[in-house]
Amino acid sequence: MPPMIAVCCLTRQRPVMLTALLKSFVALNKPLNARTLFVVVENDTGPHSKAIVESELRGENFIYALEPVTGISRARNLAVEKALAAGATAVLFVDDDEVVDAGWLQHLVAAWQADRGDFLGGPVRVKFAPGPKTAMCRFVEKGLTQRFDRRAARKARMRVNVPVCTNNCLIDSAVFATSGLRFDVALLSGEDRELFRQALARGYRASWVPAAIVHETWPAERVNFSYFFLRAREQIKASAGPKSRTMNIIASIGLGTFALLQFLCIPLTGAGGTLQAVRNMGTATGYLQKALGVPARPYGDITGN
Question: Which residue in 57, 70, 78, 202 has the fewest CB atoms around it within 10 Å?
């Protein structure tokens, strides 16, 4: 019997974006030598998106599950458990603010079946809402596009152990079934990077599949410097990192100083450099707040619809 491939996504209060993602699932060119299962886990107080999932995935092999306890790691782990219980030999993740290319699944599965790694990742390209835009909005969009493209190009040049994130990845089920690894429920962000770090330490391999493309939607409320700063701040507070107050203060001072230097170089680095400086300043602020005991917010402010 062909292997089972579980395509998973988590969702929370984004019915329009979720609908677009599910439509792209249905339009996928599915691998001929594998069976496909879609797993949608809603991390909310009730099954608000269940009807959308049932409507959009009718005729498909799918599982809907509800995780009422707030926490992205809990929701990811539930998706893993549902996939393993269904007999999946590979678990794929994308985010609910993305859509996948028609060939995305075929490219990842082909690379996995060619034994190119236990973790496989692909590029995330950014797309923006249409409509009239201010000069500042266009500047931020240019910087974001440069950032996404440079990250994908850098990973494409790496030969082994390419960093893989759950916004576009395939993970061999053995990572979960054999090692017992799971996403750390103590983390509100960065849980995928921590799982990846632990897996590499145990000898699992990772590689990059440039043709496995997904597109992340950035609504208008995200396309500003404030969002970029706050997102970086909250991500570092919620993720694994230095535990001691002293180390967090040192990290804050070091990265904050580097960010100030980056701001001075903006005439040379342009839009991409500006966004990187803003992000680093947000991260430095996150380290400082972490040292002061300021808690992170689960999910922060949800953007998108």
Answer: 202
